[in-house]
Structure formats: C-alpha cells, structure tokens
C-alpha cells in the first residue's frame, strides 16, 4: 500500500506534493519550540540565587541542560507526531506546549517548590491517565461538555498568558509596586531595544506571509545581538557572551555538543521516591486539570482554524488526535519534558492544503533531522527566544471572534476565561472561571435547560479545584 492509499489522499482531495509542502510549512512555523521549550524549562541562577525556576542538573551547565532539553523536545515531539500520522491521520503538529511548560516551571517547581523530578512524575501519571481515558472515549466526551464560549476563549486566554511571559523576558514589561505591571525603561535597556526591534521584524515577516517567520526572527535577533557585542556597541554579556567580543566563536569557549540525555531520561522515577501520597495526588490533580482542558482548548482552536469542527463546534473522532498527545506526554515525561500538545501553528500547514497524517509524518521527520543543530539551541538568548511567545500570542487572539459577544450568557464565561488567565498567571484558573460561570449565567438568564448535567458536574469539580489551589491545602501538603 502506497502513501496515497494509506493516508487517503483522494478521499481528502489532496496529493503528495501538497502534503509535503504543508508539512514543511508547519515545521517552519513551530520549529521555534526547539529553542523556546528549553529556555522556559531550564532554571536560571544569578549570583547563586534562582531568578527563574525550572530544571537544574548538578554538574551540568545551563548550556548543557538547554541542549539536553532540546534533544528531549525533538524526540518527544517526533513520537507524538508519528502517532498522529499513522493512528489519527490528522495534519496536526505536536510538541511540548507553551503555557503548559510555563505552568511546570513557574507554578509547580517555582511557586509550589516541588522538585522538578516529582513534577515530571506527575506529568507521567497524568499522561498514563490520559491514555486510559482516551482509550475508553472519556476525554472526547468531557470535551464535548466544554461550554462553547469557553472552547473559543481558551486559545485567546492562553495567548495573553504567554504574552506576559514573553514581554517580561524581553524587558518590555516589568513588575511595579504601584501598578503591578508597567513599561520597562526601554531606551536605557539594550536588551529591550533589540527585543522590540526583533519583535517588529518578526511580525513584519508574519504580515508578509513569509514561511518560518518566527524562527527567522529569533535567529536574526540573536545574530544582531552577537554583532553589536563584537563591534563593541554594548558590553559583553549584555546581548551576547564574552567570547563574541574577544575575537569570535572559539571552539574552546562555546558549549560542547550535549546529546547524552541520561541525566534527564528516567528522572521521573526518582520523583516517585519519598513522595507523600496525598500531596502527590494533589499535584497530579492540578496537572491533570490544566493539561486536560488546555489540550482540549488548543485542539479545538486548531480544529477551528483548519475547518475540521462540525456544526456543534466539536472535532469529529477527537479521541484519535487526543491519543497522540497522550502518548507524547507520557513519553516526554519519561525523557524529561513537560506536556505535549497540539500546536496552533498546524493551521499554517492546513492553509497550504494539508489534510492528512502525511503532514504530521513530514514534520516528525524534519524534527528528527533537526537533532543535528541541537548545539545551536544553547546560543539563543532568552530575549530572542521569547519573541516567539509574543508572536504566537498574537496569532492565538483570532479565536475570540467566534464568541457570540451579543449573547450575555456566552460573553460572560468567554470574557472571564480570557481575563482570569493572564491576570492570575494561571491557565487553569481561567478555564475554571469560564466553566463555573457558564451554568450560573444560563440559569440567571432563565435558560436552565441549556445546561447539561455534565456541565454542572464540571463546574462543581472546578469549585473543588479552586479550593485546592487557593486554600493553601496543596502548598501545605508539599
């Protein structure tokens, strides 16, 4: 059986050339994650103090840890996309999710103080749970219970959440005691100036329809920072390392290639040791809710962008692509990274005419080939890599147009979903606010019959979730 027959090209009105072009397009659109995921996941210390929480490996430098995470990112993504290609036959790309990796690093490891090995163990357990629930069709059923306005609002809320993380890393947004957030001193900060220029360059490429605009923008910003350092315009260490200013990229000064992921692979097993059952269950519970509904929202958002949703706003046979992200999540946790999910950038390949799993197969192969350039991931500064978060945030705002803002019972849950996510720095809180408010708004408007029993149960479950996350029970347990 040839590829055309296996993937059903005729049935989906496509051909091999179209599918390959769509796969390359999707790869270029989402390849930035190879740089960004390690940047988000790796711990950063300064003068012995942790300035950004995440994964830290004893006896390994920041650059070596970044490269390990880049390898793990590529492998986990490729495995998930192979399942997507040959099992689900959908043109969706998958990789560790933006927002979910931030939840892993900033909330679980940072705010809660949970060891990163235990956080990986929690991701592994919820991945196994997802495989089981997907196999029996439970995940697809729960997603169908998702209130429609929340489905369409999740992507926008996640976008705003990512935007704050990205803008802060770029020096554009800073904390302020009086206003909580404020504009940074852009004119006095070379990092912020270059990041702003890089951002506008990237969005200009995006507006021109240039394929791979995000990764081009990241690389161009990085190269510019190195050039300004080499020319003496800024001091070494501000935009690029000391070795750039001192005469170029000497092999002895660059981080050596690090493909051995042994320190990460299997670390989740250590996370199970000496874990108190109740506290670990609460961590898994938290991961489960965030991952479940974040993945569901992203999948629906991508399905919406690709025109795959039916008249009820549901993705037909959603259990198959859900299995791909469940397998990817489990495998990724075993290797050492956070939750794998479907990428909104998959819509770029769909726009090129991609309609089958052949697109996912092409992206998987290109991700595996990208292992050759893993050492370059450590050379990308955070201010450049986080441009991707802001650009993706802008793209994710588009889903908000699907909400019926003239219907108050739709606008209230959608609006709360969007507002609560960035303002509480939590994807889960935003989803919870939307799901809880939906039945309340419907009942208040006299539309009690529009609320299903399952939606009441979801709302009740999220009330419990709010209590667990805000009462101090979880923090006390861990």
How many helical elements? 22
The helix content is: 55-70%
Largest sheet: 2 strands, antiparallel
Beta strand count: 6
Radius of gyration of CA atoms, rounded to a whole number = 22 Å
Gap between N and C termini, in Å?
Answer: 54 Å
Strand order of the largest sheet: 1-2
User: What spatial form do the alpha-carbon principal axes imply?
Assistant: globular
* Mean pLDDT over the residues: 83
How many independent structural domains? 1
Oligomer: single chain
**What structural class should be given to the helix and strand makeup?**
mainly alpha
Unreliable parts: 242-254
What is the secondary structure topology, with strand pairs?
Elements: H1 3-7, H2 16-30, H3 33-41, E1 44-46, E2 49-52, H4 62-88, E3 94-96, H5 100-111, H6 116-135, H7 138-145, H8 148-169, E4 173-176, E5 180-183, H9 190-207, H10 213-230, H11 242-245, H12 267-270, H13 277-306, H14 319-335, E6 340-342, H15 346-351, H16 357-369, H17 382-385, H18 387-396, H19 408-424, H20 427-444, H21 453-470, H22 473-477
Antiparallel strand pairs: 1-2, 3-6, 4-5
